[in-house]
Amino acid sequence: MTSVIKFKPDPNIGIMKPLRDWIDLSGYYSFKADPDQVGEKEGWYDGFEGSPIYVHSSWNEQNPVWDLYFGKAWYLKKFYVPLPAEDGVAWIVFEGAGYLTKAWINGKFAGEHKGSFSSFRFKVDVKQGWNALAVEIDNTPTRTLPVWDEMPNALFFHYGGIQRPVRLEFAKEPYITDLTFTSSQDGRFSIATKVSGNADVTVSLSRGNRVLYEGKSGNVDDRLASPEPWSPENPALYDLTVSTGSDAVLERVGFRSVEVKADGIYLNGKRVFLKGFGRHEDFPVTGKYMPGSVLIRDFYLMKELNANSFRTSHYPYSNDHLDLADQMGFLVILEAPVAGMASYAHRNPDAFFSDPSFLKDAKAQLAEMIAEHKNRPSVIAYSVANEPESVTQASKAFLDELKKLARSLDPTRPVTHVSYRLLEDVDYDTDDFISINSYNGWYSMPGDPHQGAIKTRQVAEELHRKYGKPVLVTEFGAEGIAGIHSDPPVMWSEEYQALFIEEYVTQLKSADGVCGLHVWNFADFRIPQNVKWALLNRKGVFTRDRQPKLAAQKLKQLYGEIPAYY
Ligand code: GCB
Fold first, then answer.
1. Is the CB of 387 under 6 A from ligand 1?
2. Given Cys at both, which of 104, 144, 280, 466 links 134, Cβ 3.0 to 4.6 Å?
3. Is the pTM value of this prediction over 0.90?
C-alpha cells in the first residue's frame, strides 16, 4: 500500500507549494453521457464530439439535462506539456472521481479505479507538446460505496463526475512513494519513508524559516525539544520535508497525542469534549466539490459557533477540506465511505455482509483513506462505517475485519463504527469508543424533543455503563425549514429545530460517559427525491447557501457554555 503524496499549502492558506513539477488539468472539458454504454466499443477514448463541462465539479447541476443522469459518461481534454516529459515518471492524479474511473492518454489505456472519495494515480506516457486525456466515469447506482441500490432511500444525492482536482505530476527516479509521520505532544516523533529505488534520503522539520531538525535518513525515531503541541486552540503546524535529491515531498504535521480512556477522549493528556457537526460535501451547482471559499466560510462559521470537531460523514473529504481542519484546529473523525446500508441490509443482513466482493471494496477504500490522510494532526479517529445494521454476526464479522485493517495500517488512532441500532448493536466490544446516532423527537417520538432527549441520554449512559467506553453522539437533529416559523414550536419550523437541539445538548452535555456532540447537520444538503424530505435534507443549522437558521444562534450559546476540557 503506498500513500498518495499530496501537494500541501504553505502557511498562507491556499497557496500551493509543489515540490514536483506538475500541470493542472482542471478546467473546461468536453463531456458526453453514454447511457447505451457504447463508448468503449466505439473507441471514444480516441476522441468524440461532446459539449462543454467544467472539471472539477459534479456533472449533475452544470446542466439541468444532466441533473438526474446516473450511469456512464465521458470527459475529454487536450493539454500541452512544455517539458521534455520522457526522461522521468509521469502520473495522472485524480483527487476524487467516480464511482468507477477509467482513463486513457493519447488513446492508450492508463488504468481504472473504484471509489469516489480518495486520490488515485496512474503512471502514464505523455509527450512534449499536445496530448489528449479521455476519462470514462460510471456512477450507475449499484452496490457501490456508499451503497446506492435503492436510490430514494439513499442518504444523500448521488452526484457523479470528476469531482476533485486533476493534475499531471512528474518525478525522477528514485522518488518517494510513502511517508508516515507519528508524534506525541512531548516532542517524540518517528518518520518512515519508502522510496522507489536506492537513495540517500534527508528529512527536515521546520516552522516558518526556522529549521528545527535535520536527519540523514528517511527512517527516524527522535525527539524535538519543546515543540508547540497541536490543538484546536493552537493548531501549530510544522513543515516536514523529505528529499531524495531527485524528488521531494512536503507534509504539514503537528505534535499531538490522542488516547481513549473509559471516561473520555484525551488530547495531549487532557480530556476533551467534542463539540461540532456531521457535515457533507455539498454545494449548489458544484455538487460534491466544495470550493475553497465555501470551505473557508464554513470553518469560520464553525469557529463562530464554538465548535471544535466534525465527522467526515459519510466518506473521506477532500484535501482542501482536511488541510483547513489541520490549519484551523478541528478534531476530525474520518469516516470511510461505508454507508447507506440500512434500508437494504436490514432485510437480510447476513447475505448483505457476507458478500466477499463488498468486503473487498470496503477494505480497499478504507485502506486508501488511511494512506492518504494518516499524517494529519486533525484526524483523531477513524469511523469504519455509518449505520451498518450491526445486529447480526455477519455484520459484526464484516465490521471487525474493517477495524482490524484500520488498526494494522495505523495503530496510533482509535477506531469506531457509527450505530443507529443503539442498545441492540452487537459490535461495540471492538470499538475504542462508541458512536451513536439518535433521532428520538423526530423519526421516533415525533413532536416530543424533551422526552426524546431524555431517552437518548438514558441510552448513552447505559451503553457507557455496559461497555466502560466513552460515547460520542455522532448525530441528533431535526428538520427546520428556513423561514418557517411557529409558536408553539412544531415540527419542520425553525423554532422546533432550535428547541430539539437545546433539549439534546442540555441533556447530553453532562451525561455520564458522553464525550462529545455532533449536531446533524452543519448545512442543508441535497438528497434523492422522496416524500421524507422537502427538496433538501433540512437538518442543517445553516441553509445550503450558508445562512443561519434560529438553531445556529442557539447552538453558539449552547456550545459556548460547554468547556472544551472537562
Ligand atoms: C441518519 C444518517 C444520515 C441522514 C440522517 C437523516 O441516520 O446517518 O446520513 O441524513 O439520518 O437526516 O435522516
1. yes
2. 104
3. yes
What CA dihedral angle connects 372, 375, 381 and 386, to 10 degrees?
-10
Handedness of CA 402, 408, 410, 413 (dihedral sign): positive
Quick check: CB of 256 below 6 Å from ligand 1?
no
Q: How far is CA 214 from CA 176, 206, 211, 438, in A?
A: 18, 9, 7, 49
User: Under 8 Å CB-to-CB from 560, ≥6 apart: which residues?
Assistant: 306
Residue pair 385/431 in contact by the 8 Å Cβ criterion: no
Side chain identity at residue 479, one-letter code: E
435 lines ligand 1 (CB under 6 A): no
Cα 534 to middle of ligand 1, angstroms: 14
Helix (H, G, I), strand (E, B) or coil at 377: coil
Q: For residue 488, is the peptide bond before it cis, meaning its omega torsion is within 30 degrees of 0?
A: yes
- Digit-by-digit pLDDT tens for the chain (566 residues) are 344 444 444 444 333 345 788 899 999 999 999 999 999 999 999 999 999 999 999 999 999 999 999 999 999 999 999 877 667 899 999 999 999 999 999 999 999 999 999 999 999 999 999 999 999 999 998 878 888 777 777 899 999 999 999 999 998 889 999 999 999 999 999 999 999 989 999 999 999 889 999 999 989 999 999 999 999 999 999 999 999 988 888 899 999 999 999 999 999 999 999 999 999 999 999 999 999 999 999 999 999 999 999 999 999 999 999 999 999 999 999 999 999 887 666 678 788 888 899 999 999 999 999 999 999 999 999 999 999 989 999 999 999 999 999 999 999 999 999 999 999 999 999 999 999 999 999 999 999 999 999 999 999 999 999 999 999 999 999 999 999 999 999 999 999 999 999 999 999 999 999 999 999 999 999 999 988 888 999 999 999 999 999 999 999 999 999 999 99
Asked if residue 539 has its Cβ within 6 Å of ligand 1, the reply is: yes
- Within 8 A by CB and 6+ apart from 168, the residues are 22, 23, 25, 79, 81, 90, 91, 92, 93, 124, 126
